[in-house]
Amino acid sequence: MSGKLVLVTGVTGFVAGHLVEQLLQLGFRVRGTARAQKIAALKKISHPSLEFVEVNDLAKDDLTRALHGVDIVIHVAAPLPGKASIEETINTAVEGTLNVVRQVEKAGITKIVVTGTYGSTLDPSMGPAFNGITIGDFDWGKTSKEEIYAKNDPFYTYFAAKLLAEKALWEFVKSKPHLDVTSILPGFVFGPWAKLSPLPASEKDLGTNSFPYMLLAGVYPPVSPPWVVDIRDVAKAHVLALDLPHMEVGTKRFLVNAGNFTWEEAAEHLRKSHPGLLKHSLEGAKDLPGPASYLDTSRAKEVLGIKEFIDPKKMIDDVVDDLIELQKRWASAA
């Protein structure tokens, strides 16, 4: 597939940055979508096989120009928890996904990879995450718009919106069996930043890496399912999906996760790998509300082809090294 043109939505995102790097390394040409306010920064990136196109609203915009000449579409763009209203979060997730796949299908493009989340496989309240069970690729959570508004919680809203979006995606594909769709469902994603991407300008831009950043600040992150995966493996999963043959609708759905790794385990490892970094006893540690469940990644290994995931200890080391350098950069720019 080398040489083909791949459209990556939300190209300034954490996952997209690594995805673009890996695609370019394999010889693909890449076109990334971004909002107007981010295009200027992207134009500083120079690569002969990389270009950018302005798309301000994936839920509404005409994507004809973005899709011109494209062979494959990887839909990564998604709202972050707490960054928008409930209505906007749901609309961006659901209508954004549907608008993309409708226009992709209309343009005659058949291969689509979509970035989902482990949250689509269980109740968005995360209760099953602490029941000591095994959760698989074909498990599904349940929610509704009414439930999202009733909960009024940013993380519930995010996971529920992504769940509704993925269900809408597969419902659409049922009537379009010629479409070759894969959904990648990662655990909590951490890791170093892509070398081509603009670096975070402040703490508010850290995304999921704000959790390990909290360790450096002397506090434990909030209690969450201890499912972690390195950003480089998440990008790799998307790339591997490009080589999969067409399969029955709904079967190309893959959980991607390196294992269970708690913040207490991360802190214990950092005390050994980075002596003196965590200068004080961390505050705010809480026990998990029940035995941690596990994400079954056997199909990601057997079908998708991820033979081995990056060790969470290496992942935490690499992200902390990047965070230390970021702190220096911010201090020098102040």
Automatic annotation (TrEMBL):
One GO molecular-function entry: oxidoreductase activity, acting on the CH-OH group of donors, NAD or NADP as acceptor
InterPro entries, sorted: Epimerase_deHydtase (IPR001509), NAD(P)-bd_dom_sf (IPR036291), NAD(P)_dehydrat-like (IPR050425)
Gene3D superfamilies: NAD(P)-binding Rossmann-like Domain
Domain called NAD-dependent epimerase/dehydratase: residue spans: 6-193
SUPFAM superfamilies: NAD(P)-binding Rossmann-fold domains
One Pfam family this sequence matches: Epimerase
Keyword annotations from UniProtKB, A to Z: Oxidoreductase
Family statement drawn from the similarity comment of this UniProt entry: Belongs to the NAD(P)-dependent epimerase/dehydratase family. Dihydroflavonol-4-reductase subfamily.
Name of the featured protein: NAD-dependent epimerase/dehydratase domain-containing protein
